[in-house]
Structure formats: C-alpha cells, structure tokens
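Postdoc handover notes: sequence design on the structure in folder B. Input tokens:
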C-alpha cells in the first residue's frame, strides 16, 4: 500500500465516528441533567477554542454561562447567541485589575452569585510564537516569559481571587484550571523525568506547571470553605489556533503531530467537576482522555476530528497510513509515549523527520 493512498478499509467511517461523538455529548448532558440548572458558570477565554465549546455545552446543561474574553473579534455571533440564551459575554483582559473588577461587578449585578469558575484563558505558544509555537528556551526573552506568566499565572490568580468570593460565602463551589500534560513528571528508577520534554514549549509549560502546583495547594486551603479546586489536561485538541499552526508545519513538510480531538471531549469531565464541590473531588489533576475512557466516554480515538478541511485531512491521512500497527493485548488505548513512538516512526517513513524541530502537543 502506498503511504499516499491509504486504503478505504483503513479509513474510519467518519459519519459513524461523528455520530458516536454526538451520542457521547448527549449522554453526558443526560448524566448531569438537572445538576447544573441555574448555576452560574464563568469561563475565561470563552469566546473561542476550547472555552467556547465548553460554554455551549454548559448552556445546554442548563447553566447560566458567563464567557469572559480579552477579545470578541470574529466571535460576534456567539456573543449574540449568549445574550439570547440568558448568558453573558464579558470583554475583559484577565491581566488588568480594573477590567476584572468591572467584570466581577457585571457578573454579580446580573446573576447575584458565581458557582463555578473555569480558568481556561491562556496565552498559548502557538499565539505567542505564531504560527509554529516553537522557540528554543535560550532564544526566548524575559518579555516572552513576563507575557505568558502575566496571563496564565498572575491573570488566573487575579480571576480566582475575585470569583471565589461568592463560593466561599455559600460554602460551595468548583474551580477548574485548564493545564497541560506537558507538566507531568514520570518516575523511573528513583528519578523523575518529564513526560515529553522534547516538545519545545517554554515558557508555556512553566506557566502550566505553576498553575498545577497552585491547584494542589489552593485546593487544601479552601477545602474547608466547600470549594473544590481541580485541574484538567486536555490533550491535543483542535482550538482556534490549530489550523494555522498545522498548515505552517505542513508547508515545512512536517505533519503537525497527530490528528487532534474535537473540543467537545472536554465536556463530560467539565460537567462532572462543575456539578460537585469540595465534598467530592478536590486537589486532583485529571488527564481528560484517560478520565473519559475510565468513565465510559470513549478512548482518545473516539473523539478525533475526522471533519478537518481537505488539505489537513490529506496531511493526517498520509501520516496515519504510514503509522506502524500497534497492538498489545490488555491495553485498549495507547499510552502517550507509545503514540509518540508511532508518530516518530511514521514521520521517518514519510522522510520528513529531519524537518522536525520537536512536535508540540500541549
Ligand atoms: N488546544 C490544546 O491542544 C490544548 C492542550 C492543552 C491545554 N490547552 C489549554 O486549553 C485552554 C484553552 O486554549 P485553546 O487551545 O482553546 O486556545 P485558544 O487560543 O483557542 O483560546 C484561548 C482563549 O483565551 C483568550 N485569552 C488569551 N489571553 C487572554 C487574556 N489576557 N484575558 C482574557 N482572555 C484571554 C483568547 O482570546 C482565547 O479566546 C488554555 O488554557 C490552554 O493552555 C489547550
């Protein structure tokens, strides 16, 4: 079989994959039906990407949703939709104290309280170092680090300081911090090493590591107030920057890591964490694809996006056709390093490995 021409048999039936994804979304909405009715959920970075998708799901789950974002450019339709659906769109830069005070006032004026906060807003590498998202650490400037820590760490903390107040007063609430699997250490032989330190992601991963540590420590400090603080790691997900980055890699002759998941794969765990408080899970760090698998919401492959634009479909089909078959009895889905090994093998087969400066997979 030519690597350029994957056989029809190897291609998934995209209509049935998409139908199954829709079924899993509907099932999650059924599973938490009623639990979020009328709850006020604030999602930062809610105008686009993962944040928008979470807002749409939370609205369908019956929550009153506040989508807060630095800019609504290109998202005016969603802004109108939020107004029409009893939600609230707020324009706020989370690094700005005065704007945050005004946003907090707007939310409490409108809804009187806050039940859930999803800290999703972030400056990602692909935006700071557009379009590839890659810059070697020694080539980054202090300003790069200040900009990323300003949004991802200090901005997140500024948001928490304000929006946690009504939760503490009510002795009930949930905070969900969106981090990244790139922060994970792995133990081997008495030493710890990074899960995938070759992906060239400073200072982004340093900020996500800081938010992960904040999650663990803050969770214990506010557990007694009834507020749960947890973190989630999405995995490789098609967000607002994705197509531009993937195409930039394609132009360099490199396939941009593997086919991404659709943003909806984050909905079940977000509903679960939003519906509970510190009497449930608190101080935990969840990897979303594993959580989905363990809770009957499919493995990672079940959420992959098979409705990409034609040029990107062609790129990922080429990669998938070149990937070695991986089968190990008793392992129903691929651990991260096995995926990485397959990807590297496929790139080598495609002859494009030498163009690769380290694949980013936030
Ligand atoms: N997409 C992935 O593969 C992936 C993987 C791991 C983690 N994440 C995390 O998921 C979250 C969402 O990212 P995404 O991939 O959807 O990216 P995205 O760029 O599509 O969305 C990020 C949103 O945050 C907003 N934002 C940025 N700076 C802001 C500021 N100062 N104030 C207010 N809003 C601001 C942006 O305008 C944008 O709407 C981030 O925390 C990111 O680190 C994403």
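Designed sequence:
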């Amino acid at each position: 079989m030519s690597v350029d021409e994957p056989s029809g048999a190897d291609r998934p039936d995209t209509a049935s994959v998409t139908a199954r994804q829709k079924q899993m979304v509907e099932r999650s909405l059924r599973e938490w039906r009623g639990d979020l009715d009328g709850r006020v959920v604030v999602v930062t970075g809610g105008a686009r990407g993962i944040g928008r998708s979470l807002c749409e799901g939370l609205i369908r789950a019956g929550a009153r949703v506040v989508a807060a974002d630095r800019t609504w450019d290109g998202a005016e339709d969603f802004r109108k939709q939020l107004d029409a659906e009893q939600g609230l769109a707020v324009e706020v830069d989370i690094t700005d104290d005065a704007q945050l005070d005004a946003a907090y006032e707007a939310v409490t004026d409108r809804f009187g309280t806050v039940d859930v906060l999803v800290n999703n807003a972030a400056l990602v590498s692909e935006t700071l170092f557009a379009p590839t998202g890659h810059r070697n650490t020694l080539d980054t400037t202090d300003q790069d680090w200040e900009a990323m820590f300003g949004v991802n760490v200090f901005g997140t903390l500024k948001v928490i300081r304000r929006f946690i107040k009504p939760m503490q007063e009510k002795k009930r609430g949930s905070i969900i911090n969106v981090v990244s699997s790139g922060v994970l250490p792995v133990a081997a032989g008495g030493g710890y090493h990074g899960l995938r330190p070759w992906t060239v992601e400073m200072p982004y991963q340093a900020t996500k590591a800081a938010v992960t540590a904040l999650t663990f420590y803050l969770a214990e400090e506010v557990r007694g107030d009834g507020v749960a603080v947890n973190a989630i790691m999405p995995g490789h997900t098609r967000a607002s920057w994705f197509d531009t980055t993937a195409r930039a890699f394609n132009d360099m002759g490199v396939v941009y890591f593997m086919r991404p998941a659709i943003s909806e794969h984050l909905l079940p765990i977000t509903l679960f964490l939003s519906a509970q408080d510190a009497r449930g899970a608190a101080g935990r760090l969840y990897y979303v694809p594993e959580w989905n698998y363990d809770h009957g919401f499919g493995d990672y492959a079940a959420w992959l996006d098979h409705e990409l634009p034609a040029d990107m479909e062609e790129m990922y089909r080429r990669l998938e056709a070149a990937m070695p078959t991986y089968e190990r009895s008793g392992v129903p889905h691929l651990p991260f390093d096995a995926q990485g090994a397959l990807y590297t093998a496929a790139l080598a087969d495609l002859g494009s490995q030498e163009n690769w400066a380290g694949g980013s997979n936030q």
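Context for whoever picks this up: The domain at 13-308 is CATH 3.40.50.720 (Rossmann fold). Don't rerun without checking with the PI first.
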